[in-house]
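Possible regression after last week's pipeline update?

I re-ran a chain I had predicted before the update to compare outputs. Posting the input and the new output here so someone can diff against the archived version. Not blocking, just want to make sure nothing changed silently.
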Amino acid sequence: MHTRQRSRQAFIIAEQRDHSGLLGKSFAKHPEKLDGLRTQIGETGCPVLLDTLAWVECSVENEMPAGDSTLVLGRVVAAHVQAHGQAQGEPLTMRAAGFRHAG
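New output (post-update):
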């Protein structure tokens, strides 16, 4: 059974730099990790991390059960790629962040 735990109908996907630290892995349990980071409020009301390589802001269009997870379908409402000279670096890969995917 998939229960709704999100309070917002929006989300942000941010491309972190390879040396930016591992925000994503435990962010859901420790939202205070945003403290001290440069942010701004996006069009949907979600906080946007300004020191990332790029970000995409989406509104939730639909949610579908997918095994023991929920697949969230989003509609892009805003996106940004940092200009040359800002937040430079290589993208952080899932492997480098320590995530494992079996499928």
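Follow-up from reviewer: compared with the archived run. The chain has one domain: 10-97. Marking as no regression found.
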